[in-house]
Every structure is written in structure tokens, then in C-alpha cells.
């Protein structure tokens, strides 16, 4: 394990010189990407080779957690949930009544920058904060205690997590294909309607709706399996990203599909901005006519990208079963290995949005510093100006590339380690586990190349 750790530390810095894309329209970050992409692919490939040479128990040893302290029972999660509800309500109000500029109105900045980039990444990197920040649990508990009523319907078990999968694809369609997803009033209407319908689901079906049918809670609970911090036998525990996956049973089929869809959606989120995609649609990226022209094409691309990824992932698992001489049902194997996709999806999420977070995060600070636009300085930043100067110097550009490509490569390395540990947990012998994992490992190596190429591609949007 020391050798594996040292090898990773030595190779990741080389791999992370790969490349990145900037969400800001005026910046195209170009470096000699061929060498760096191959270094990233080599890092992931060598991880597979090293795992094959290590003892069978090495995979589980990597993800062994350390117990830190007893978990305090503060009982504040409903209070913090109500605070999240009030915050969301105030943002919706500002979305309707405030400035129409997405960089001046707090609604789009807090939804797309603070929540979608910051809090989703924090959920996967650190731990399950959604337990306290979920904007539905507090109000649902308050309504139940005030009225004394129970949910009139029982959630149909046969639906599983599929409503959440469908709703998440609808959310992704709004994010990727709507002509103006950052328009404050438009986003406020969408967020307010979504919050109300999700609360209605909780009122009708009880808490089961949140854990099975509400897409954003499913998203957060899935990434919550990746966090460094978690609970083990009633105590706060710490371990490598993904250790909680091994501490839980395999997910149900619908949730497993959602885990793969997270990667497919994130990948298309980057692909639909590239010169390659616009060229495929017959559009000159230097004369882009606007998002409204490509709504249908992007919607079709989103669906096809996810279907292609699901098919490729299932095919690799099916082939692995045949190579290993095993005949487990494909559904069982799919659910077993689907969580190994989460580190890759999280790595792409962080890498894709890093540059926009660096810029838009400054606008968030500016609004927090002066929330009503009256010239106050709550943070003591009287002369605060948003800057993009870090895109203009070689040192900072290289640091950005290092961070973005590093997130992708580290995500793939963790995914391969996790897939190996899951294979050994299934009870098969080492030889069969390695044979069965080979097609999936090859898939992950190829996806590393694709991901780094995606970061290196110039953007036209």
C-alpha cells in the first residue's frame, strides 16, 4: 500500500498538467495537452496494474475508516432545515423583485454557484451536510406536528427510485437546454414550483418521497456516500473517499442508474459547449447564435449521452462476468459496481465548474458584503472588485489546470480502487475478481482520456 500511495503521489502531478476549460466566454486555456493527457491515462492504468500485483485484502485496507469521536445528538437538523427553507424563500422573492442581472441578483448566484457547485461538491468531498440543509424536512415535520395528520398514501414500492431518476433528468434538461436558466425570475419560478411540488410529495407520501422520489435528495444522498466524514457504529468516522460505499449494501437498481446518469449528465454538460459538438451541429462556434437555437439538439444529446453511457457500462460488466466465468444476473452486478462511478462523476463536477466558481464566487462575496445594494460592507470589504486576472498569467493558469485535471485523475484512481474493493467484497476469488473487473478498468482508463480531452477542448458557449 505504501508503494501504491507513493506511485500515485508521483504520477498525479504529471497527470494534472493535462488541461482545463474555462466557463468564462473570453478565455481559452491552451497548453500542450497530448503529453499531459497521456500522463493522466498512464496514472490510472498503472493503478490497475499495481492493484493486480497487491494482496487481495489491499482494496479493503485502503478504505478502512478511523473512528474519531461519538456523534453528538444536537437535534438541530429541523431548525437548520427551516433556515434553509426561509433562505430559499427569500431568494425566490429576490428573483422576482430584484435585478434582472444574473450577476447582481442573489437567486441565480446562490442556486448555481453556492448550491450546485459549492454545496454539491462539499457533499461529496467532506460529508453529508444535506441532513441539515435539506429545505423540506423541517417544514414537513412542522406541518405534521401542527396538524397531527399523517400521509394519506403509502409510497408504491414498485416505483423504487425511478421517479427521482426521471425528475433529475428534467432538472438536467432545464440546466443544459433552457435558453436562460440563470434568468432570476425564470429560475425563481422554477425553484419555487419545484420546492412546492416536492413538499406536496412529502405531504402525500411521507418521508419515503424524499428518499425515493425527490431527485435532489437522491443526488445528495448518492454523493454523501463519497464523503471523507461519516458515521460508523454510532461514531464519527474518517476514511478515504468512498469508504462509506463499502459500509452500505448495494443500491437498488433505480438509484444505481442515477449514479451512472450523474456522470453522463456531467459529461454532456462539458461536451455540449465544445467546438466539436457545435461543429457536429453545423454551427460556427465563433458566431454562436444563442442557446435557443440548440435546445432540441442538446435535449437529444443529453438523452443519448446517458443511454450510451448506461449501455457501455452494462456491456463492460456483462463482458467481465463472462471473462471471469461467472453468471450473476446483470442487474445484480450493475447495482454492485454503480457506486464506483461516483468518484468519477464528482471529479468531473468539480473540474468542470471550477473556473466559473472562481469568478462567480466573487460575485457571491460581493452580494453577501452588500446584500441590499445600499453600500454596506458587512464583511468589511468596502472596495471589493471582481477580477479575472488569474486567467492572464501563466502561473495561475497552470495552477488551474493542475487542479481541474487533478480532480479528474484522482476521481478515476479512487473509482478503480473502489471497484476493486467491491469486486473482492462480492466473495469471488482474486483471479476471477481481476478478470471480471478488467473490462470495467479498461472503460475507466478510456474515460480518463475522454475526460481530459473534454477539459482541453476549446469552448464555444
From TrEMBL:
Q: What is the lineage of its organism?
A: Bacteria, Pseudomonadati, Pseudomonadota, Alphaproteobacteria, Rhodobacterales
Q: Which top-level group of life is the source organism from?
A: Bacteria
Q: Does the keyword Membrane apply?
A: yes
Keyword check for Membrane, yes or no: yes
Q: Which residues cross the membrane?
A: 36-54, 75-96, 108-126, 159-176, 188-211, 250-268, 299-320, 332-351, 399-422, 434-456
The protein depicted here goes by the name: Fenitrothion hydrolase
Q: Record the organism.
A: Roseovarius rhodophyticola
Signal peptide residue numbers: 1-22
The protein's UniProt keywords, in alphabetical order, are:
Membrane, Signal, Transmembrane, Transmembrane helix
Amino acid at each position: 500500500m505504501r508503494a501504491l500511495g507513493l506511485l500515485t503521489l508521483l504520477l498525479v502531478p504529471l497527470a494534472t498538467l493535462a488541461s482545463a476549460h474555462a466557463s468564462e466566454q473570453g478565455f481559452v486555456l491552451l497548453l500542450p495537452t497530448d503529453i499531459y493527457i497521456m500522463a493522466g491515462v498512464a496514472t490510472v492504468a498503472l493503478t490497475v496494474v499495481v492493484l493486480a500485483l497487491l494482496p487481495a485484502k489491499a482494496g479493503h485496507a485502503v478504505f478502512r475508516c478511523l473512528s474519531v469521536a461519538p456523534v453528538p445528538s444536537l437535534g438541530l437538523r429541523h431548525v437548520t432545515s427551516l433556515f434553509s427553507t426561509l433562505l430559499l424563500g427569500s431568494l425566490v422573492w429576490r428573483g422576482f423583485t430584484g435585478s434582472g442581472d444574473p450577476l447582481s441578483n442573489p437567486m441565480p448566484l446562490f442556486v448555481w454557484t453556492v448550491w450546485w457547485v459549492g454545496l454539491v461538491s462539499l457533499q461529496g468531498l467532506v460529508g453529508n451536510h444535506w441532513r441539515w440543509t435539506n429545505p423540506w424536512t423541517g417544514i414537513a415535520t412542522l406541518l405534521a406536528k401542527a396538524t397531527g395528520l399523517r400521509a394519506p398514501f403509502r409510497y408504491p414500492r414498485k416505483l423504487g427510485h425511478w421517479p427521482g431518476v426521471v425528475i433529475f433528468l428534467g432538472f438536467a434538461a432545464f440546466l443544459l437546454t433552457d435558453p436562460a436558466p440563470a434568468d432570476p425570475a425564470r429560475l425563481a419560478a422554477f425553484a419555487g414550483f419545484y420546492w412546492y411540488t416536492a413538499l406536496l410529495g412529502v405531504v402525500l407520501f411521507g418521508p419515503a418521497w424524499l428518499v425515493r422520489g425527490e431527485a435532489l435528495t437522491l443526488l445528495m444522498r448518492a454523493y454523501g456516500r463519497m464523503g471523507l466524514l461519516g458515521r460508523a457504529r454510532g461514531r464519527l468516522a474518517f476514511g478515504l473517499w468512498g469508504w462509506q460505499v463499502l459500509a452500505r449494501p448495494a443500491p437498488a437498481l433505480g438509484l444505481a442508474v442515477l449514479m451512472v446518469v450523474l456522470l453522463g449528465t456531467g459529461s454532456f454538460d462539458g461536451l455540449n459547449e465544445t467546438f466539436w459538438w457545435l461543429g457536429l451541429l453545423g454551427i460556427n462556434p465563433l458566431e454562436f447564435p444563442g442557446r435557443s437555437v440548440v435546445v432540441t439538439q442538446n435535449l437529444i444529446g443529453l438523452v443519448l449521452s446517458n443511454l450510451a453511457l448506461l449501455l457501455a457500462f452494462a456491456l463492460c460488466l456483462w463482458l467481465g462476468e463472462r471473462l471471469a466465468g461467472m453468471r450473476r444476473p446483470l442487474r445484480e452486478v450493475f447495482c454492485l459496481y454503480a457506486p464506483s462511478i461516483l468518484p468519477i462523476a464528482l471529479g468531473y463536477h468539480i473540474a468542470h465548474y471550477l473556473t466559473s466558481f472562481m469568478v462567480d464566487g466573487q460575485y457571491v462575496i460581493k452580494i453577501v458584503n452588500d446584500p441590499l445594494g445600499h453600500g454596506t460592507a458587512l464583511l468589511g470589504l468596502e472596495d471589493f472588485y471582481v477580477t479575472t486576472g488569474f486567467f492572464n498569467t501563466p502561473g495561475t493558469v497552470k495552477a488551474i489546470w493542475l487542479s481541474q485535471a487533478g480532480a479528474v485523475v484522482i476521481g478515476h484512481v479512487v473509482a478503480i480502487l473502489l471497484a476493486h474493493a467491491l469486486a473482492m467484497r462480492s466473495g469471488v476469488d482474486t483471479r476471477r475478481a481481476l478478470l471480471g473487473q478488467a473490462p470495467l478498468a479498461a472503460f475507466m482508463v478510456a474515460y480518463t482520456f475522454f475526460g481530459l480531452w473534454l477539459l482541453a477542448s476549446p469552448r464555444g458557449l
